C-alpha cells in the first residue's frame, strides 16, 4: 500500500488549499520504488537532479509507447475531472524528444490510452519544468489506471524528476472561478456609458427617463449555418424558425459546408456559389458579420473535390493559386476572415501531393496579396478539447518563421461528454496567446448523451463564461444549434420541428439576452445625465417623457463614452 501525502499549496495571498498527491516517489529520492519499466530500462541516478540529489534516467526504449510507468490509486482519482501535472525533464546535448504523459486504462474491453499532455523538448532547454492542468477521461469502466511517459525517438535518454499529479485541489483564489471570470468580463467587455440629455423647457426633468435597448453584442457570438436553409429564407422573403433563431441569438455566421472547395467547385470551372452567397447576403441584411470556412483542407478526402485530389505537382500548385484568386475575389467584402488550410496538424495533403514544401506558406501569401484586409486563420481540433496544443504551437511558429501572414488562431472546440476543465482550457488559451494573435473558438459544441441536457446546460454556461472572460479570445462560433441540422445532434441547443430550446439552449439564451444584456430604464440624479456600465455593442437610446418618446438615437459602445441628446 502506498501513502498519499496531502500537500498544501499556497494560491494567491494566504489561501491555503489542499490537494492530494497521486504520484509515489515522483522525485526518485527513494530510487525507483513505485515505478516499473514498460519496454525500457530506467535507474535513479545522482548525476544531475532538478530537486534533491537523484533523478530518473530512462534508456533502452524499445518502442515509442515504452516508458517508465506507475500504477495510480483508482480510489483517489476515479471521481476527479482532472488534476495538476508537474514534472521536470532534461535531455543530453543534441537530443530532441517528442513525448506524452499518458494514462493507460485497463477495462473489460481492452486497454485505452489517453494523452494527458503532449510536449516537445530540446536539449538546449536544460531542465524544463512543465506545470499544467490536465483532463482525465471517465474512469468508471477501468479496473486499473497507470501513468507513463512515452515518446520518440527511442534513442533519447531523458532525465526526469519532480513528477507530481495533484487532484482535488481548489485552484481558486479570491472567490470561485465564476466570480473571477465575471470580474474580468466586467473589466474587458464593458464600458461606462453616459447619456447627457437636453430637453425643451416645458418638460419637467423629473419625468424624463432613458430607455436603453441592447441590440447587438460587439463580441462575436456566432454560429455555423446550413446554406440551403438560409437560402430558402432569403428567396421566400420570410424567415422560418431556423432563420429566426439564428438571427435572434447570434451576431456572426460561418457556413458549415457551402464555402468548402468541394461545394464551391465540384467540377473544374463549374462554380456553385448560390448557397454561400444567399447566406452571406441574408446575414449582412441582418447586421451579422461573417467568416469564411475553409479555403483548403489539409486532411485528404475532406471535401476537397475529386478533380483536385487527382492533381499533383505544379498542376496542383496552379489549381491552389487559382482557387485563392477565384474565391477571395468572389467573397470580397462578404467575409472578414478565412480559415486557410484547415487542420494542418492532422494532414498534409497539399504538401504531399504537390511536392511543394512551401505550398502552405503560399496559400497564406496569395490570400493576403489578394486582400490584405482579410484575417487569415490557422484552424485545428484537439487543442482545447484534446491534447495536441504543443504540436499546434510548433506548426504556428514554423509558419510564422517562414513569414506566413497569419492573423488569427482558430481552436475548434468539439468537446465530448466530460465536464470542460476550466483550468486546463485557460492554460491552453494563455499558452497560445504567446503569438499575440486573436484567438477564436471556431467550432464549439459539447455533446453529452443525456436527453435532459442538464449537464449540457452547465457546460455551455461554463464555456461561454470562461471564453467571454479571456481577453485573448475574440469570438466564439457555435458549430450549429438545431438537432435536425447538426453533425452531432446531441450537441444541439434546440430540438424538433418546433425548434424548442433545450436546457442548454435556455442557458445560452439567458447568458446573451439576460445576464449579458445591458437593456434598462435609466433615471438621472437631477442633472439629466444617465449613467450605466454596459456591455460593448450596439444600442438604441430612447429619451422618454413619461410614456411619450421624445426621440431615439443609435450608438455603438466600444469604449467609455458620453452621448449627447438630441
Ligand atoms: Ca529528485
Tell me what you see in this structure.
The protein contains 14 helices and 32 strands. With 566 residues, the chain is of the alpha/beta class. It has 3 domains: 162 residues, Galactose-binding domain-like (Jelly Rolls, Sandwich); 79 residues, Immunoglobulins (Immunoglobulin-like, Sandwich), CATH 2.60.40.10; 258 residues, Glycosidases (TIM Barrel, Alpha-Beta Barrel), CATH 3.20.20.80. Calcium ion binds next to loops.
Largest sheet, strands/sense/barrel: 8 strands, parallel, barrel
Name of the CATH class of the largest domain: Alpha Beta
Q: Please give the number of β-strands.
A: 32
Share of helix among residues? 25-40%
CA radius of gyration is 27 Å
The coarse silhouette is globular
Report the CATH topology name of the largest domain.
Answer: TIM Barrel
User: What structural class do the secondary elements suggest?
Assistant: alpha/beta
Strands side by side in the biggest sheet: 15-16-17-19-21-22-24-25
Estimate nothing, just give the exact number of structural domains.
Answer: 3
Cofactors and ligands: calcium ion
Fraction of residues in β-strands = 25-35%
Oligomer: single chain
Mean pLDDT, to the nearest integer, reads 93
CATH homologous superfamily of the largest domain - what is it?
Glycosidases
CATH architecture of the largest domain: Alpha-Beta Barrel
Give the topology, please.
Blueprint: E1 6-11, E2 15-21, E3 36-38, E4 41-45, E5 55-59, E6 67-72, H1 74-77, E7 82-90, E8 96-107, E9 110-122, E10 128-135, E11 142-152, E12 159-167, H2 177-188, E13 190-197, E14 208-217, E15 221-225, H3 227-236, H4 241-249, E16 252-255, H5 261-264, H6 274-285, E17 289-292, E18 296-297, H7 306-309, H8 313-330, E19 337-339, E20 341-342, H9 349-354, H10 359-370, E21 375-380, H11 389-402, E22 408-411, E23 414-415, H12 422-432, E24 439-446, H13 454-469, E25 473-478, E26 494-495, E27 500-501, H14 503-515, E28 520-522, E29 529-535, E30 537-545, E31 548-557, E32 561-565
Parallel strand pairs: 13-32, 15-16, 15-25, 16-17, 17-19, 18-20, 19-21, 21-22, 22-24, 23-24, 24-25
Antiparallel strand pairs: 1-2, 2-12, 3-6, 4-5, 5-12, 6-11, 7-10, 7-12, 8-9, 8-11, 13-29, 14-28, 14-30, 26-27, 30-31
Helix pairs in contact: 2-13, 3-6, 8-10, 13-14
Bound molecules: calcium ion (CA).
Amino acid at each position: 500500500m502506498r501513502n498519499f501525502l496531502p500537500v498544501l499549496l499556497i494560491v494567491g495571498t494566504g489561501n491555503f488549499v489542499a490537494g492530494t498527491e497521486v504520484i509515489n516517489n515522483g522525485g526518485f529520492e527513494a530510487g525507483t520504488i513505485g515505478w516499473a519499466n514498460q519496454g525500457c530500462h530506467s535507474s535513479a541516478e545522482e548525476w544531475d537532479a532538478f530537486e534533491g540529489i537523484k533523478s530518473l534516467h530512462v534508456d533502452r526504449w524499445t518502442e515509442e509507447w515504452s516508458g517508465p510507468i506507475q500504477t495510480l490509486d483508482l480510489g483517489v482519482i476515479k471521481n476527479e475531472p482532472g488534476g495538476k501535472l508537474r514534472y521536470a525533464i532534461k535531455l543530453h546535448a543534441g537530443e530532441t524528444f517528442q513525448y506524452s504523459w499518458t494514462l493507460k486504462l485497463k477495462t473489460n474491453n481492452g486497454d485505452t490510452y489517453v494523452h494527458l499532455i503532449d510536449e516537445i523538448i530540446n536539449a538546449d532547454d536544460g531542465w524544463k519544468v512543465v506545470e499544467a492542468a490536465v483532463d482525465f477521461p471517465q474512469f468508471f469502466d477501468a479496473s486499473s489506471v497507470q501513468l507513463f511517459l512515452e515518446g520518440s525517438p527511442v534513442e533519447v535518454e531523458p532525465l526526469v524528476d519532480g513528477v507530481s499529479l495533484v487532484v482535488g485541489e481548489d485552484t481558486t483564489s479570491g472567490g470561485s472561478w465564476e466570480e473571477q471570470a465575471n470580474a474580468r468580463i466586467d473589466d474587458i467587455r464593458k464600458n461606462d456609458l453616459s447619456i447627457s440629455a437636453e430637453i425643451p423647457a416645458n418638460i419637467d426633468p423629473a419625468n424624463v427617463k432613458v430607455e436603453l435597448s441592447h441590440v447587438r453584442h460587439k463580441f462575436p457570438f456566432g454560429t455555423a449555418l446550413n446554406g440551403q436553409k438560409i437560402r430558402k429564407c432569403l428567396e421566400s422573403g420570410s424567415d422560418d424558425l431556423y432563420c429566426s433563431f439564428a438571427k435572434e441569438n447570434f451576431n456572426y455566421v460561418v457556413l458549415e459546408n457551402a464555402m468548402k472547395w468541394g461545394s464551391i467547385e465540384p467540377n473544374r470551372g463549374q462554380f456553385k456559389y448560390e448557397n454561400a452567397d444567399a447566406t452571406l447576403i441574408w446575414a449582412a441584411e441582418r447586421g451579422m458579420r461573417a467568416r469564411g470556412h475553409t479555403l483548403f483542407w489539409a486532411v485528404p478526402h475532406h471535401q476537397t473535390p475529386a478533380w483536385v485530389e487527382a492533381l499533383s505537382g505544379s498542376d496542383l500548385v496552379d489549381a491552389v493559386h487559382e482557387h485563392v484568386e477565384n474565391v477571395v475575389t468572389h467573397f470580397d467584402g462578404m467575409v472578414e476572415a478565412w480559415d486557410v488550410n484547415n487542420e494542418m496538424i492532422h494532414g498534409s495533403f497539399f504538401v504531399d501531393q504537390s511536392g511543394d514544401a512551401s505550398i502552405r506558406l503560399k496559400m497564406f501569401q496569395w490570400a493576403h496579396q489578394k486582400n490584405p484586409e482579410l484575417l487569415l486563420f490557422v484552424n485545428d481540433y484537439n487543442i482545447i478539447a484534446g491534447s495536441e496544443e504543443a504540436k499546434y504551437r510548433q506548426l504556428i511558429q514554423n509558419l510564422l518563421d517562414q513569414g506566413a501572414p497569419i492573423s488569427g488562431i482558430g481552436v475548434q472546440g468539439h468537446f465530448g461528454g466530460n465536464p470542460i476543465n476550466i483550468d486546463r482550457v485557460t492554460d491552453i488559451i494563455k499558452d497560445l496567446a504567446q503569438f499575440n494573435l486573436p484567438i477564436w473558438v471556431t467550432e464549439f459544441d459539447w455533446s453529452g448523451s443525456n436527453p435532459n441536457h442538464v449537464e449540457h446546460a452547465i457546460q455551455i454556461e461554463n464555456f461561454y463564461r470562461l471564453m467571454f472572460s479571456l481577453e485573448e479570445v475574440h469570438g466564439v462560433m457555435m458549430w450549429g444549434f438545431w438537432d435536425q441540422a447538426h453533425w452531432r445532434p446531441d450537441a444541439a441547443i434546440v430540438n424538433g420541428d418546433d425548434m424548442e430550446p433545450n436546457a442548454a439552449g435556455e442557458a445560452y439564451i439567458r447568458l446573451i439576452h439576460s445576464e449579458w444584456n445591458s437593456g434598462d430604464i435609466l433615471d438621472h440624479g437631477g442633472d439629466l445625465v444617465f449613467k450605466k456600465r454596459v456591455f460593448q455593442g450596439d444600442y438604441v437610446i430612447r429619451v422618454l417623457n413619461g410614456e411619450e418618446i421624445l426621440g431615439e438615437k443609435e450608438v455603438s459602445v466600444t469604449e467609455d463614452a458620453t452621448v449627447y441628446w438630441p
